[in-house]
Amino acid sequence: MAHQSSDLTTSLTRPGSLNSGTDSRALLLKLFAGEMFKGFQHETIARDMVMKRTLKNGKSLQFIYTGRTTAEFHTPGNSILGNSDGAPPVAEKTVTCDDLLISSAFVYELDETLAHYELRGEISKKIGYALAEKYDRLVFRAITKGARQASPVSKTNFKEPGGSQVRVGSTTNDSDAYSSTALVNAFYDAAAAMDEKGVSSSGRCGVLNPRQYYALIQEAGSNGLINRDVQGTALQSGNGVIEIAGIKIYKSMNIPFLAKHGVAYGGTTGKTSPSNLGDHVGTAMGDARKSVTGLNNNYGNSTDFAKSCGLIFQKEAAGVVEAIGPQVQVTSGDVSVVYQGDVILGRMAMGADFLNPAACVELIAGAATGSTGNAAFGTSYPANA
Fold first, then answer.
1. pLDDT in tens, 307-365
2. Residue 237's domain is classified under what CATH number?
3. Which residue stretches of 42-107 are H helix?
Protein backbone atom coordinates (compact mmCIF):
# COMPACT_ATOMS: atom_id res chain seq x y z
CA MET A 1 0.00 0.00 0.00
CA ALA A 2 1.33 3.41 -0.95
CA HIS A 3 2.33 5.69 1.90
CA GLN A 4 0.15 8.80 2.14
CA SER A 5 1.32 11.89 3.97
CA SER A 6 -1.33 13.77 5.99
CA ASP A 7 0.67 17.00 6.23
CA LEU A 8 -1.72 18.92 3.96
CA THR A 9 -5.06 17.65 5.23
CA THR A 10 -5.58 20.45 7.74
CA SER A 11 -5.01 23.18 5.15
CA LEU A 12 -6.91 21.70 2.21
CA THR A 13 -9.42 23.92 0.46
CA ARG A 14 -12.41 21.64 -0.12
CA PRO A 15 -14.70 23.77 -2.31
CA GLY A 16 -17.57 21.35 -1.95
CA SER A 17 -17.55 21.63 1.85
CA LEU A 18 -20.18 23.80 3.56
CA ASN A 19 -18.47 26.14 6.05
CA SER A 20 -15.47 23.76 6.10
CA GLY A 21 -17.66 20.97 7.45
CA THR A 22 -16.94 17.26 7.30
CA ASP A 23 -19.03 16.67 4.16
CA SER A 24 -16.61 17.57 1.35
CA ARG A 25 -19.40 17.39 -1.27
CA ALA A 26 -22.11 19.44 0.43
CA LEU A 27 -21.99 22.25 -2.12
CA LEU A 28 -21.43 20.18 -5.24
CA LEU A 29 -24.13 20.00 -7.89
CA LYS A 30 -27.31 18.21 -6.82
CA LEU A 31 -28.96 17.81 -10.23
CA PHE A 32 -29.97 21.45 -10.39
CA ALA A 33 -28.25 24.52 -11.70
CA GLY A 34 -26.61 26.91 -9.32
CA GLU A 35 -23.78 29.35 -8.94
CA MET A 36 -21.46 30.21 -6.13
CA PHE A 37 -22.46 33.50 -4.54
CA LYS A 38 -19.79 36.09 -5.13
CA GLY A 39 -19.32 38.37 -2.18
CA PHE A 40 -18.52 42.00 -2.38
CA GLN A 41 -14.87 42.60 -3.08
CA HIS A 42 -12.58 45.56 -2.76
CA GLU A 43 -10.23 46.26 -5.63
CA THR A 44 -7.06 48.24 -5.31
CA ILE A 45 -7.28 51.97 -5.91
CA ALA A 46 -4.00 53.12 -4.36
CA ARG A 47 -1.74 51.75 -7.08
CA ASP A 48 -2.51 54.55 -9.52
CA MET A 49 -2.65 57.30 -6.91
CA VAL A 50 1.02 57.35 -5.89
CA MET A 51 4.50 57.16 -7.41
CA LYS A 52 5.20 53.57 -8.48
CA ARG A 53 8.55 52.19 -9.61
CA THR A 54 9.76 48.74 -10.64
CA LEU A 55 12.62 47.43 -8.52
CA LYS A 56 15.37 45.33 -10.11
CA ASN A 57 18.80 44.17 -8.96
CA GLY A 58 18.46 45.62 -5.49
CA LYS A 59 16.49 45.56 -2.27
CA SER A 60 15.51 49.22 -2.20
CA LEU A 61 15.07 52.26 -4.41
CA GLN A 62 15.98 55.87 -3.76
CA PHE A 63 13.57 58.66 -4.58
CA ILE A 64 15.31 62.01 -4.94
CA TYR A 65 13.65 65.02 -3.36
CA THR A 66 14.74 68.50 -4.46
CA GLY A 67 13.92 71.51 -2.36
CA ARG A 68 13.20 75.06 -3.43
CA THR A 69 15.79 77.27 -4.97
CA THR A 70 16.13 81.04 -5.01
CA ALA A 71 16.55 83.79 -7.58
CA GLU A 72 19.13 86.56 -7.33
CA PHE A 73 20.29 89.48 -9.40
CA HIS A 74 23.45 89.07 -11.46
CA THR A 75 26.34 91.45 -10.98
CA PRO A 76 27.93 92.39 -14.32
CA GLY A 77 31.29 90.73 -14.76
CA ASN A 78 30.77 88.05 -12.13
CA SER A 79 30.99 84.39 -13.15
CA ILE A 80 27.89 82.27 -12.65
CA LEU A 81 28.66 79.10 -10.71
CA GLY A 82 25.34 78.36 -9.09
CA ASN A 83 23.48 80.20 -6.38
CA SER A 84 25.70 81.59 -3.65
CA ASP A 85 23.54 79.98 -0.96
CA GLY A 86 23.96 76.50 -2.44
CA ALA A 87 20.32 76.10 -3.38
CA PRO A 88 18.54 73.96 -4.22
CA PRO A 89 19.05 71.45 -1.40
CA VAL A 90 18.66 67.78 -2.28
CA ALA A 91 17.56 64.89 -0.08
CA GLU A 92 16.68 61.29 -0.73
CA LYS A 93 14.03 58.90 0.49
CA THR A 94 14.73 55.17 0.42
CA VAL A 95 11.85 52.73 0.01
CA THR A 96 12.67 49.09 0.72
CA CYS A 97 10.91 46.07 -0.67
CA ASP A 98 9.10 43.97 1.93
CA ASP A 99 9.28 40.18 1.85
CA LEU A 100 7.28 38.12 -0.63
CA LEU A 101 3.55 38.43 -0.04
CA ILE A 102 1.56 35.31 -0.91
CA SER A 103 -1.96 33.94 -0.88
CA SER A 104 -2.59 30.35 -1.89
CA ALA A 105 -5.09 27.51 -2.02
CA PHE A 106 -4.85 23.78 -2.73
CA VAL A 107 -7.47 22.46 -5.16
CA TYR A 108 -8.15 18.72 -5.03
CA GLU A 109 -8.55 17.41 -8.58
CA LEU A 110 -11.65 15.33 -7.87
CA ASP A 111 -13.37 18.31 -6.25
CA GLU A 112 -12.62 20.35 -9.35
CA THR A 113 -14.05 17.63 -11.57
CA LEU A 114 -17.27 17.42 -9.57
CA ALA A 115 -17.72 21.15 -9.10
CA HIS A 116 -20.41 22.82 -11.24
CA TYR A 117 -18.61 26.16 -11.36
CA GLU A 118 -15.33 27.34 -12.84
CA LEU A 119 -13.28 26.66 -9.76
CA ARG A 120 -9.80 27.87 -10.55
CA GLY A 121 -10.96 31.21 -11.89
CA GLU A 122 -12.99 31.90 -8.76
CA ILE A 123 -10.17 31.01 -6.41
CA SER A 124 -7.64 33.02 -8.42
CA LYS A 125 -9.95 36.02 -8.25
CA LYS A 126 -10.21 35.79 -4.47
CA ILE A 127 -6.45 35.50 -4.17
CA GLY A 128 -6.05 38.60 -6.31
CA TYR A 129 -8.46 40.51 -4.08
CA ALA A 130 -6.48 39.49 -1.00
CA LEU A 131 -3.27 40.89 -2.48
CA ALA A 132 -5.02 44.09 -3.58
CA GLU A 133 -6.42 44.60 -0.09
CA LYS A 134 -3.01 44.26 1.53
CA TYR A 135 -1.48 46.59 -1.09
CA ASP A 136 -3.96 49.39 -0.40
CA ARG A 137 -3.72 49.04 3.35
CA LEU A 138 0.06 49.39 3.38
CA VAL A 139 0.04 52.38 1.01
CA PHE A 140 -2.62 54.20 3.03
CA ARG A 141 -0.70 53.57 6.25
CA ALA A 142 2.42 55.02 4.63
CA ILE A 143 0.55 58.19 3.59
CA THR A 144 -0.82 58.57 7.12
CA LYS A 145 2.74 58.30 8.38
CA GLY A 146 3.83 61.05 5.98
CA ALA A 147 1.12 63.41 7.24
CA ARG A 148 2.90 63.44 10.62
CA GLN A 149 6.44 63.90 9.37
CA ALA A 150 8.76 66.80 8.66
CA SER A 151 10.28 67.18 5.22
CA PRO A 152 13.42 65.16 4.39
CA VAL A 153 14.95 68.46 3.23
CA SER A 154 16.29 70.04 6.42
CA LYS A 155 19.07 72.37 5.25
CA THR A 156 19.33 75.52 7.33
CA ASN A 157 17.18 78.30 5.87
CA PHE A 158 15.80 75.85 3.28
CA LYS A 159 13.56 73.58 5.34
CA GLU A 160 10.66 72.33 3.26
CA PRO A 161 7.08 72.06 4.58
CA GLY A 162 6.02 68.85 6.29
CA GLY A 163 2.76 66.94 6.54
CA SER A 164 -0.62 68.14 7.81
CA GLN A 165 -3.35 66.91 10.14
CA VAL A 166 -6.81 68.42 9.75
CA ARG A 167 -9.48 67.95 12.38
CA VAL A 168 -12.98 66.98 11.23
CA GLY A 169 -15.44 68.73 13.52
CA SER A 170 -14.65 70.13 16.94
CA THR A 171 -16.14 67.77 19.54
CA THR A 172 -14.55 64.83 21.32
CA ASN A 173 -16.92 62.42 19.58
CA ASP A 174 -15.78 60.16 16.77
CA SER A 175 -19.14 60.80 15.12
CA ASP A 176 -17.67 64.04 13.71
CA ALA A 177 -15.99 61.83 11.11
CA TYR A 178 -19.39 61.23 9.47
CA SER A 179 -20.59 64.84 9.45
CA SER A 180 -20.88 65.95 5.83
CA THR A 181 -20.61 69.61 6.80
CA ALA A 182 -17.48 68.97 8.87
CA LEU A 183 -15.98 66.87 6.06
CA VAL A 184 -16.56 69.61 3.49
CA ASN A 185 -14.88 72.14 5.76
CA ALA A 186 -11.97 69.76 6.33
CA PHE A 187 -11.47 69.29 2.58
CA TYR A 188 -11.28 73.03 2.00
CA ASP A 189 -8.88 73.35 4.93
CA ALA A 190 -6.69 70.56 3.50
CA ALA A 191 -6.71 72.12 0.04
CA ALA A 192 -5.64 75.46 1.49
CA ALA A 193 -2.86 73.78 3.46
CA MET A 194 -1.50 72.08 0.35
CA ASP A 195 -1.74 75.34 -1.61
CA GLU A 196 0.19 77.15 1.11
CA LYS A 197 2.88 74.46 1.08
CA GLY A 198 3.31 74.63 -2.68
CA VAL A 199 1.87 71.20 -3.49
CA SER A 200 0.75 70.77 -7.10
CA SER A 201 -3.00 70.83 -7.62
CA SER A 202 -2.68 68.05 -10.20
CA GLY A 203 -3.34 64.54 -8.93
CA ARG A 204 -4.97 65.48 -5.64
CA CYS A 205 -7.38 62.92 -4.24
CA GLY A 206 -9.15 62.01 -1.02
CA VAL A 207 -10.11 58.60 0.32
CA LEU A 208 -12.96 58.13 2.78
CA ASN A 209 -14.92 55.17 4.01
CA PRO A 210 -18.25 54.33 2.29
CA ARG A 211 -20.49 55.94 4.91
CA GLN A 212 -18.53 59.19 4.74
CA TYR A 213 -18.64 59.12 0.96
CA TYR A 214 -22.40 58.64 0.80
CA ALA A 215 -22.90 61.33 3.44
CA LEU A 216 -21.19 63.72 1.02
CA ILE A 217 -23.36 62.53 -1.87
CA GLN A 218 -26.42 63.64 0.07
CA GLU A 219 -24.95 67.15 0.00
CA ALA A 220 -24.23 67.05 -3.74
CA GLY A 221 -25.69 69.95 -5.67
CA SER A 222 -24.75 72.43 -2.98
CA ASN A 223 -21.43 73.85 -1.84
CA GLY A 224 -19.82 72.94 -5.18
CA LEU A 225 -19.32 69.27 -4.31
CA ILE A 226 -19.56 67.88 -7.83
CA ASN A 227 -18.15 68.57 -11.25
CA ARG A 228 -20.68 70.49 -13.30
CA ASP A 229 -19.97 68.16 -16.24
CA VAL A 230 -21.03 65.03 -14.35
CA GLN A 231 -24.69 64.05 -14.49
CA GLY A 232 -27.12 61.46 -13.24
CA THR A 233 -26.22 58.12 -11.72
CA ALA A 234 -22.49 58.61 -12.21
CA LEU A 235 -22.61 60.35 -8.86
CA GLN A 236 -23.25 57.02 -7.16
CA SER A 237 -20.21 55.17 -8.53
CA GLY A 238 -17.64 56.08 -5.90
CA ASN A 239 -14.97 56.43 -8.57
CA GLY A 240 -13.75 59.89 -7.79
CA VAL A 241 -16.78 61.65 -9.25
CA ILE A 242 -17.34 64.00 -6.35
CA GLU A 243 -14.85 66.84 -6.06
CA ILE A 244 -14.27 69.30 -3.29
CA ALA A 245 -11.76 72.10 -3.91
CA GLY A 246 -10.39 70.20 -6.90
CA ILE A 247 -9.83 67.02 -4.84
CA LYS A 248 -11.37 63.87 -6.32
CA ILE A 249 -12.94 61.68 -3.66
CA TYR A 250 -12.84 57.88 -3.58
CA LYS A 251 -14.20 55.35 -1.12
CA SER A 252 -12.35 52.41 0.34
CA MET A 253 -12.59 49.99 3.23
CA ASN A 254 -8.80 49.87 3.47
CA ILE A 255 -8.04 53.28 4.96
CA PRO A 256 -7.11 53.63 8.64
CA PHE A 257 -10.33 54.54 10.41
CA LEU A 258 -10.39 54.88 14.19
CA ALA A 259 -7.83 52.06 14.55
CA LYS A 260 -9.84 49.75 12.30
CA HIS A 261 -9.93 48.99 8.59
CA GLY A 262 -12.45 51.23 6.86
CA VAL A 263 -15.25 51.43 9.43
CA ALA A 264 -15.93 51.46 13.16
CA TYR A 265 -19.29 50.97 14.85
CA GLY A 266 -20.57 51.78 18.33
CA GLY A 267 -18.92 53.92 20.97
CA THR A 268 -19.00 57.60 20.08
CA THR A 269 -19.20 57.02 16.32
CA GLY A 270 -22.98 57.20 16.38
CA LYS A 271 -23.17 54.37 13.84
CA THR A 272 -25.02 51.13 14.55
CA SER A 273 -23.64 47.92 13.13
CA PRO A 274 -25.77 46.54 10.26
CA SER A 275 -25.25 43.09 11.90
CA ASN A 276 -23.95 39.90 10.31
CA LEU A 277 -20.61 41.51 9.59
CA GLY A 278 -18.66 38.28 9.39
CA ASP A 279 -14.99 38.23 10.28
CA HIS A 280 -13.65 40.78 7.83
CA VAL A 281 -15.62 44.02 8.29
CA GLY A 282 -14.25 46.65 10.65
CA THR A 283 -11.34 44.52 11.82
CA ALA A 284 -8.58 45.94 14.01
CA MET A 285 -5.61 47.18 12.00
CA GLY A 286 -3.01 45.19 13.87
CA ASP A 287 0.74 45.64 14.13
CA ALA A 288 2.61 46.45 10.90
CA ARG A 289 5.80 47.91 12.29
CA LYS A 290 9.20 47.10 10.87
CA SER A 291 9.80 44.63 13.70
CA VAL A 292 7.04 42.37 12.35
CA THR A 293 8.32 39.42 10.32
CA GLY A 294 8.14 40.08 6.60
CA LEU A 295 8.05 43.87 6.83
CA ASN A 296 11.05 46.06 6.03
CA ASN A 297 9.15 49.35 6.21
CA ASN A 298 7.35 50.83 9.19
CA TYR A 299 3.57 50.96 8.69
CA GLY A 300 2.62 51.54 12.31
CA ASN A 301 0.52 49.80 14.94
CA SER A 302 -3.26 49.99 15.33
CA THR A 303 -3.01 52.37 18.29
CA ASP A 304 -1.25 54.91 16.08
CA PHE A 305 -4.43 55.35 14.05
CA ALA A 306 -6.88 55.77 16.93
CA LYS A 307 -8.32 59.02 15.56
CA SER A 308 -7.59 58.74 11.84
CA CYS A 309 -10.71 59.05 9.69
CA GLY A 310 -9.61 59.76 6.12
CA LEU A 311 -6.79 60.81 3.83
CA ILE A 312 -6.22 63.63 1.38
CA PHE A 313 -3.05 63.54 -0.68
CA GLN A 314 -1.32 64.29 -3.94
CA LYS A 315 0.51 61.79 -6.13
CA GLU A 316 3.93 62.66 -4.67
CA ALA A 317 2.73 61.74 -1.18
CA ALA A 318 4.06 58.18 -1.28
CA GLY A 319 6.27 55.90 -3.30
CA VAL A 320 5.79 52.21 -4.01
CA VAL A 321 8.48 49.84 -5.24
CA GLU A 322 7.45 46.58 -6.88
CA ALA A 323 10.04 43.83 -7.33
CA ILE A 324 7.32 41.37 -8.35
CA GLY A 325 3.97 42.63 -9.54
CA PRO A 326 0.77 40.69 -8.79
CA GLN A 327 1.12 37.20 -10.28
CA VAL A 328 -0.70 33.87 -10.17
CA GLN A 329 1.20 30.59 -10.34
CA VAL A 330 -0.20 27.06 -10.56
CA THR A 331 1.67 23.82 -9.88
CA SER A 332 1.66 21.04 -12.44
CA GLY A 333 3.49 17.88 -13.47
CA ASP A 334 4.85 15.65 -10.72
CA VAL A 335 3.46 17.85 -7.95
CA SER A 336 -0.06 17.42 -9.29
CA VAL A 337 0.41 13.65 -9.50
CA VAL A 338 1.77 13.27 -5.98
CA TYR A 339 -0.95 15.36 -4.32
CA GLN A 340 -3.72 14.75 -6.87
CA GLY A 341 -4.37 18.44 -7.15
CA ASP A 342 -2.76 21.81 -7.68
CA VAL A 343 -1.65 24.73 -5.57
CA ILE A 344 -2.87 28.09 -6.86
CA LEU A 345 -0.53 30.79 -5.63
CA GLY A 346 -0.83 34.55 -5.84
CA ARG A 347 2.29 36.52 -5.05
CA MET A 348 3.82 39.95 -5.11
CA ALA A 349 6.79 41.77 -3.60
CA MET A 350 6.39 45.47 -2.85
CA GLY A 351 7.12 48.13 -0.31
CA ALA A 352 5.73 51.60 0.35
CA ASP A 353 6.65 54.72 2.30
CA PHE A 354 5.89 58.42 2.27
CA LEU A 355 7.88 60.69 -0.07
CA ASN A 356 6.76 64.31 0.20
CA PRO A 357 5.09 64.93 3.58
CA ALA A 358 3.65 68.24 2.37
CA ALA A 359 1.49 66.24 -0.04
CA CYS A 360 -0.01 64.17 2.81
CA VAL A 361 -3.02 65.25 4.88
CA GLU A 362 -4.54 63.07 7.58
CA LEU A 363 -8.11 63.69 8.68
CA ILE A 364 -8.74 63.05 12.38
CA ALA A 365 -11.87 63.13 14.52
CA GLY A 366 -12.57 63.33 18.24
CA ALA A 367 -9.20 64.76 19.24
CA ALA A 368 -6.85 67.62 18.57
CA THR A 369 -4.02 67.15 16.09
CA GLY A 370 -1.05 65.27 17.44
CA SER A 371 -2.88 64.22 20.61
CA THR A 372 -2.47 60.99 22.57
CA GLY A 373 -3.37 57.97 20.46
CA ASN A 374 -2.55 59.88 17.34
CA ALA A 375 1.03 60.90 17.97
CA ALA A 376 3.58 61.31 15.22
CA PHE A 377 5.68 58.47 13.90
CA GLY A 378 9.42 58.93 14.31
CA THR A 379 11.36 59.83 17.44
CA SER A 380 8.30 59.44 19.67
CA TYR A 381 7.39 56.18 17.98
CA PRO A 382 8.03 52.83 19.76
CA ALA A 383 11.67 51.83 19.79
CA ASN A 384 11.02 48.57 17.95
CA ALA A 385 9.17 50.27 15.05
1. 999 999 999 999 999 998 887 777 777 767 778 888 888 888 999 999 999 999 999 99
2. 3.30.2400.10
3. none
